[in-house]
User: What shape does this take?
Amino acid sequence: MVAAASPETLANGGSRIAGPDGEWLVAPSGPTEKLLVATIDHRRVLEERQNVDPGGHYARADVTRLKVNRRRQNLIDRLD
Assistant: This one.
């Protein structure tokens, strides 16, 4: 029943190019075939890397834990 209610084209492609900040440099092209080209300013890449928040709200000790097992590991387990 779901397939019958779906449109004939579920996804029309729509290639696009996004900049380092996620904004479209080239908007979705639709179902037409074409070559998309854009120039990216590499300084913008460095600027956007500053927006990464490794020590902020993603660093949640209540949901993330690193456990290190320092015990010697055996390559062979013997079953006697």
